[in-house]
């Protein structure tokens, strides 16, 4: 197996600090026993066409998305979605350096990815470095799909997409984006919006546009009722069909706005709007949640005119784990792909069948490499609970499937892990104002990246020696902390026990029943380890159990635990009822506190990124996710205390550690750390990335 692929430097960033300069946009490969040769084949250099005086490097022809290159028209595009943030930052703060962009583009090229899709205007360095990379790699350039996000969420609050201030703000951003890609934009930074001078023209490699974001179905349905009399839009570049809805008419007008701005620069590119299964135009009668099949939005109702030669396409953010109709719709669950039932393949086939006159691209897909999950899925493609190798294997499998089903492209979400993200089943347990300052393995949304953003901890934090004695079960224990874990290293005494309890006290004032086997101690969290069977379970005291913050789960549905304690679990589906059959579906829990044994060293081919403890001879290593200790914000040392269904927090003086084995209770010491506002991290491609690379080369081999 190919080992870990590591970018050529450890980027330690905070605030507006720039990354250390690289001597070239190259990246280094570390820990590899074999370095694959660069992919060979015909040229991917752009060979644009001209129609009606507009130059275009890509266009739609029926169901084919065609990228016009010197090696012929490419009809399938493997790509990746790139956000605009790094650890410690929120979107729009523009912290990505030119050095990072250079290294990232090189890594994308090594992976065989041909397109980078961005959601909004990036800082000028993005466009400068993209052009520089492509000019230096003329035969294997990286094409761009530019996004334009909605300006804010006011349409949801006002229940009106046609709200004039909202629409005007979006039109201004559409114009700004058209100027950014042609190198003709200057603007001042504002909150959530980068500023600078854009002077680089990247239109030679601009393969398309995707505007907007996933539309809220309830708000859009209300907007449609409010604007029912809005006339069908008939613009110079885009128009609506007679069956269009008000939402589709608003989207057609915005696509027409963008086309007008772009045409002014003498170019044309395919333009699409963001869609997702929640608002797809298909019917899903077995979907148990009404809002997931409430409002259809159909790209077939928004069509280009003869004055827009590049055309349009249908763009979907479609994952294999959500919505629930993927698990219950008979037509989908019985769809056969490669000799077995595969509902996601069936869904892809349905999308392509519906959009019979335009290309369909899956512009977000993938699964996260996280300990925590948020939804179960058929065929093990759940929203989390995957090792890095498993996530990359599934992503590779899905990319090949998207090509096999006749779609025009697949963009993996996402390039890098994003610490600021949240998900429905852990968000209520965290301080939202400081979420970007630490990394939670239980929050799956933070782990979709191909590029790991590994927490490093402050370089001057040092190791804390907690225990150095002739005691039993351990002779020595050291600790260190980083933005993701509390790490313990223990040297066990002679005759190690068959099982051990590692106990953690985070708030001395919280008391209750002791954990059986821990003597008179009353810790707040426990790792119960079977040292012989290499298994384990994490528990948390009832008072700190975070599930009660968001969801009422009957005690009878929770996993086994001693009285006064709960296993660390996540709700991954509420109890539901299927609308057609009336079948009752029970709630579903993930045992996120199942403690996997093994190495997590990314230099080791056998590593499991989900492993939390390892016993190697007398050496015991344990790493504890902050969430499993009840922390709502470890960067401020604040522990979450659920009270009356709301999150309150209390500052922890530190984490007091003790060990218990065979009735012997051993006090270890207290781990302390300073609060932080600047996170440190290291970048590396995740284990298994080479498998995705192989898939990317396969799906483009026929072009």
From TrEMBL:
This is Uncharacterized protein. The lineage of its organism: Bacteria, Bacillati, Actinomycetota, Actinomycetes, Micromonosporales. InterPro entries: GH (IPR017853). It comes from the Bacteria. It comes from Paractinoplanes aksuensis. Residues 1-21 form the signal peptide. Keywords: Signal.
